[in-house]
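User: I'm new to structure prediction. If I give you an amino acid sequence, what do you actually give back? Let's try with this one:
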Amino acid sequence: PLVSQQWFHYLPLLFTTSGIFAMDWVSFAAAGVQSAFAWIAYNRDGFADNVTMRQSQLYQQKNYQISWVAIAREDIRDMMGISVTRINNYMVVATLILSVAGGAVFSVDLGVECPDFIMYSFYMCVGQ
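Assistant: Good question. You get back a string of structure tokens that encode the predicted 3D arrangement of the chain. For your 128 residues, that looks like this:
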């Protein structure tokens, strides 16, 4: 009987004014603490994920800029190649025209009996 009286003596400490056991308050507080730590862990994980994504985005942006510069260089090289090829073609055509004109000037023998106006007309036509 002495043991039961000691237990009965501590019984009012187990209850609060609203009738909820004190252990329920402890479990309620523990759940709050657990929720706070879960919230902190969630934010920490979210921050770590955001850092990773931000770093990946920056790398992707830099790689895009580098590849854009490489493409721009290739385009400029292609345009310059087209211009150089066109100029080379003009030089070939000009060389052919000059060689035909030179051949016409040096290979034609008008003779001594050819009138002067025909000779001058011929040279004028070839010179143009």
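You can read the tokens as a compact description of the fold. Here is one thing that stands out. The chain has a mean pLDDT of 82.
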